[in-house]
Amino acid sequence: MTAQLSPKQLEVLEFIRRFMATHGVPPTRGEIALGLNLKSRQGIEQHLRALQSKGAIELVPEMSRGIRLRPEVSAAASLTVSENSGLDEDALPLLGRIAAGSPILASGNIEDRVKVDPTLFRPRAHFLLRVRGDSMKDADIQHGDLLAVHHTSEARNGQIVVARLGDEATVKYYRRAGHRVRLEPANAAYQAIEIDLRKQAFTIEGLAVGIIRTGMKKL
Questions:
Q1: How far apart are alpha carbons 214 and 47 in whole angstroms?
Q2: How far apart are CA 131 and CA 85, in angstroms?
Q3: Which of 12, 70, 86, 204 has the fewest CB atoms within 10 Å, measured from its CB?
Q4: Which of the following is catalytic: 137, 172, 199, 217?
Q5: pLDDT tens digit sequence for 107-122
Q6: For residue 86, pLDDT beyond 60
Q7: Could you name the CATH architecture of 7-74?
């Protein structure tokens, strides 16, 4: 794939891959809508065209099952949660709560490991973070999701970041103007966090590059 996929695009792509592995044929638009509980067929078409433009799939005109996975996507490993916490080169560390003052990948922060190919994400994922709360629900990042994160200290305006504010970590849209940073939620029920870099400690720990929806909402 040549471009970064949004969380929803990754979810659609993973559904297509799972469906083809199970049924041997690509899903129809209706089956994608039913499988992902989406009401808008127009929205599904937009996701599919975005996946095609980013090099993940090919759409065959005038075919109800005209979806073809690119070879490198077809070969990617499925997303499955590991049943143990043993080390594995194809597993990503899963972080629960981030301990105050400790490095992001300190052993005390890692609660499990998840069997997933890090190169499925662009840029590649370095760790997973269990999402708590619904402040990013309108960006389709839900409570209980596993957020795939690319470890970096740099971000562009408008990207979704994992940021550390003093003793707390949060997932928000990032915007910066001079010495002021604004961390914006994707839920109207929450207010943005305003930061003055001259007075407050602030660190970008990584960029959100995708989600794994586990269905485990009780934490």
A1: 21
A2: 19
A3: 86
A4: 172
A5: 567 788 888 888 888 8
A6: no
A7: Orthogonal Bundle (1.10)
**146 is written with which tokens?**
């596993």
Q: Per residue in 124-143, pLDDT tens?
A: 888 898 888 899 999 988 88
Can you tell me the distance from the alpha carbon of 44 to that of 23, in angstroms, rounded to the nearest whole number? 20
Residue 164's nearest CA partner among 105, 100, 209 is: 100
Domain 91-212 falls in which CATH fold?
Answer: Umud Fragment, subunit A (2.10.109)
For 134, the token pair is 């619904």
Question: Tell me: the pLDDT tens digits for 44-55?
Answer: 888 899 999 888
Domain boundaries, the chain: 7-74, 91-212
Residue of 107, 135, 217, 218 with catalytic role: 135
CB 206 within 8 A of CB 127: yes
Are 3 and 204 spatial neighbours (Cβ–Cβ below 8 Å)? no
